[in-house]
Amino acid sequence: MRSSFPKLQRSFLGLHSTSSNPNPPSSLSPSQWLLLSSSISTSRHLRQFLARAIAAGLLRNNHLHLWNSLLHSLARGPNPDLSISLFDLLRRAGVAFDNYAFTAVLKAVAAFPLPKEGENIHSLSLKLGFESENFVLNSLIHMYFVCGFHVAARRVFDLAEDSARDVVSWNSMISGYLQVGMCQEALSVFGNMVRRSITMDAITPVSALIACGRIRAIEPGRRIHSLVVIYGFDLNCFLGSSLINMYAGCGYIEDARKLFDRMPERNVVCWTSMISGYTQSGRFRESIKLFREMQMAGVRADDPTIASVISSCAQLGAHAQGSYIHKYCDANNIGKLLSVKNALIDMYSKCGDIQRAFEVFQGLAQKDVISWTVMISGLALNGYPKEALDLFSEMELSDEAMPNEITFLGVLTACSHGGLVDKGYHYFNKMVHCYGLMPQIEHYGCMVDLLGRANLLKEAKNFIKEMPIKPDVVIWRSLLFACRGKGNVKLAEYAAERILEMEPRRCAGHVLLSNIYAVSSRWSDVNKVRGVMSNWGIHKKPGCSFIELNGIVHEFFATDRSHHQSDMIYEFLRYKWLGTRHIRRRGCPLCCCCLRRSKIKVLESTKREPRRCKTKGAREAHQWIIISYTELGTAAWSITLLRLPIIFQAM
Q: Which spans of this chain does UniProt mark as PPR repeats (predicted)?
């Protein structure tokens, strides 16, 4: 872009003395000239316009307002570089600029951005004494931040006189630091502004609240909220959504909801802020429920709203609800952004509908790295490792996106689930030598999981020892979990010791080790581990599962009876448990139970159904997914019923 400027400038300067139109309409007024300039869209148009302007004598006369208007018009147009070229031409022609001309050309520089041209214009403003002008100062700060030169922006701000800095200058510094991800510095500038008693406007607290939400700084956020009340700012949608985002981002979702309920007006931004806050806080049911309320309130959702609620459906496995939202998008002509399409792929994949996920993926006009990564991971997690690796090969051949670290996590997961040890090593080395990506702890965890699933426990242990980074607790959990399936008690104890060194008060290591002892019938060791947990006050969180039925997501916790149909569900469970006694006696039980002397495995039986359910409630309860844990003395047993109609329909 910059290499074309000198050639363009020489063409302009040549027009100063030689015009292609010897008899231009010099009688045009400045407003007519400005109207004529609206047709400028290319450098050729600009040359033609300038030729007529020069021939009409506009450079010899004082028409600075015309040039300023043209500079601003070009800076806002599709080709801001024309504004920079015109500015340089006018400077060479000896036109005396004012501060508005500098504001326009600095806006054009920031649009690309072109830091070298920005520095040259800054030097010219210093030479002409315009740097202390308020408009020029603010434009310089904005330009340097957009170009990524935050140190230069801070120097311009600090060297300016107090009289030159207004609230826009302070806002530019705060928002500029936000743009470059320096939230702590943004809050520091805001605090300095408050200490100097600089009168803020409604935009100032919004930028500061965004900074608080990003770094989860709740106390500064609350103080800013207090200042909003003290200054008497109206709780409009703009400010209200910023407060909601701050509280939700800091983990105070209840405070965010109270604020949301008190807002006099709520637009789509406010609804989206609250919905995404629920999603980010892991309260997915509330997110979907609020989306329904949003529809009942007659507020039309936008793409960010859809992306958030689809993410909640993905986490809950709410396939019907997610499909409804997909149809809602098609009916209302929304959800066209790639981020929404990627969320749909992720949702269908996590709900097990890999066919629909692939249909959405194939329908994308253009795919980014997230699109490829989500689809590869979805195939890997749904039992299609070969297809996942084939898709990765297709990604490598395409020029749409370059694989990143997360993409290789999906690839290694596919190798792990497919038992492809050699390919796992191949891709692990490829990400380093071919793509220059350094493996993170998650990639090492995938390799340990791959070796553990392949029953290569010794190789997994050696791999951990040779890691260039210190293994975290997830690595040791992967090894411990692999030992559980293979009954390697000695290695399990070694991994458990490493886990307990890192997390002595967490239950995961104790529970896994206890289960391994139980599988090996080492009941004294089971009692010992549980005794340690009891003495230290360590409790395992109850198991939880979800099921979507008729568009409603139901949640079940182990031994919980809060569900309104719990009596009916437990009646059905007792009935089915008693009805499978003859199967359990033959070693083909309903589920995996650890009783004191025997281990029973889950098998999908093809035996006949013993007898028909006697009650209507019991017949209806077969639609639920239930996970229930019951303590029997010192040994735990569990019943896991996944899609009861499928399991029991042929018994």
A: 166-200, 267-301, 368-402
Encoded tokens for 167: 């609230």
- Token pair belonging to 536: 């230290």
User: Residue 546 pairs with which residues in a beta bridge?
Assistant: 555
CA–CA separation, 127 vs 121, rounded Å?
A: 10
Q: What are phi and psi for residue 593, nearest 5 degrees? A: -125, 140
Position 647 scores a pLDDT of: 28
Q: Residues 463, 466, 471, CA angle at the centre, nearest 5°?
A: 80
Q: How far apart are CA 382 and CA 375, in angstroms?
A: 11
pLDDT at 502 over 70: yes
C-beta of residue 159 within 8 angstroms of C-beta of residue 125: no
Q: How far is CA 429 from CA 422, 451, 479, in A?
A: 11, 15, 21
- Residue 574: its pLDDT value, please? 72
Give the pLDDT band (50/70/90) at residue 154: very high
Q: What value, to the nearest 5°, has the Cα angle with vertex 80 and ends 79 and 82?
A: 80
Beta strands 635-641 and 544-549 are unpaired
Q: In whole angstroms, give the CA distance from residue 339 to residue 346.
A: 11
Nearest to 612 by CA among 622, 603, 602: 622
* Per-residue model confidence (pLDDT) at position 593: 37
Could you report the per-residue pLDDT of 246-292, keeping only the tens digit for each?
999 999 999 999 999 999 999 999 999 999 999 999 999 999 999 99
Helix 203-215 and helix 167-179, axial crossing angle in degrees, nearest 10 = 20
DSSP of 354-398: HHHHHHHHHT-SS--HHHHHHHHHHHHHTT-HHHHHHHHHHHHHS
- Rounded CA-CA distance 486/509 in Å is 17
Cα separation, 520 vs 514, in Å, equals: 10
539 in the Ramachandran plot: left (φ > 0), alpha (ψ -120 to 50) or beta?
A: beta
DSSP state of 622: G
Q: Averaged over 349-365, what is the pLDDT?
A: 95
Find out whether 443 and 425 touch, Cβ atoms under 8 Å. Answer: no
- pLDDT of residue 467 exceeding 70: yes
Q: Residue 233: exposed, middle, or buried by beta-carbon count in 10 A (0-12, 13-18, 19+)?
A: middle
3 state SS for 418-440: HCCHHHHHHHHHHHHHCCCCCCC
Own/partner pairs for 557-563, CB < 8 Å, 24+ apart? Answer: 558/627, 558/628, 558/629, 559/628, 559/629, 559/630
CB contact at 8 A, 474 and 445? yes
pLDDT at res. 560: 66
Identify the CA nearest to 49 among candidates 69, 70, 65. 70
**Nearest-angstrom CA–CA distance, 134 and 14:** 36
Q: What does 467-507 look like in DSSP terms, one character per residue?
A: -SS---HHHHHHHHHHHHHHT-HHHHHHHHHHHHHH-TT-H
Alpha-carbon span 250 to 396, nearest angstrom: 39
